[in-house]
Amino acid sequence: MLLSIFDIVSLLCFIACWSGYTWFARKKAKTTDCIARSLHQHRIHWMTELMQRDIRVGDAALLANLERNIAFFASTTLIILAGVLTLFAQVEQLENIILSLPFALNANHFTIQIKLSLLAFIFVLAFFQFTWSMRQYGFVNVMVGAAPLDLSGDKAHLQSYAVEMAVVQDQAAHSYNYGLRSYYFSLAAICWFFHPLLFITTSMFVAYTLYRREFKSKAVRAITRGNAYLKQEQNMK
């Protein structure tokens, strides 16, 4: 076999870690406080407050800053992708480098091309996610520009409009998060060049790290407590 059983098992483990964590995080976020769930509540509050502001220069600056961060990753992804594609023409040199490393296994032209293809696929996926996120932030800008002024804050249809703006922004943030997640798992994919066991270990470690940061970090607890304070402030109005 051109790919060993160990390589196939490690690749399946990588796919299971990535797709499994994505499914788990999406389901868990519906019932558990996490970064995605808590920030969505903050976005609703932000868009609701925005409807009551006549001057929205600060809001526009915040949205522009978010877009700049995503644009940076989108352009960086293209550079990385170009570098990965260039390595396809240097497979022989790359094979010699890998064979010179201790504990490296099964380094031949075919396996190296498969591993490079995996990296290329990951960064193509990341690029699509980042650019879609940028487009959705553009949609948010249009909706903010169209938002009428509601000083009273008691018009139900405008409150619903604020929620819809928050939903579009939330979807843009999800795409950004998926793009960043691709970067995390690309680090695990690099380990496949050295050893399948290292590939399996880093895949699990990345999934665990993402879980800790998105569900158990201090930032999550602080953002969740912030939601409670905002609700308290709204009830006092």
From TrEMBL:
KW Zinc (keyword) present: no
Pfam family, one: DUF599
Top-level taxon: Bacteria
Keywords: Membrane, Transmembrane, Transmembrane helix
Keyword presence, Secreted: no
Annotated TM spans: 5-24, 70-91, 112-132, 183-211
PANTHER family: OS09G0494600 PROTEIN, PTHR31881
Protein name: Uncharacterized membrane protein
Record organism: Pseudoalteromonas denitrificans DSM 6059
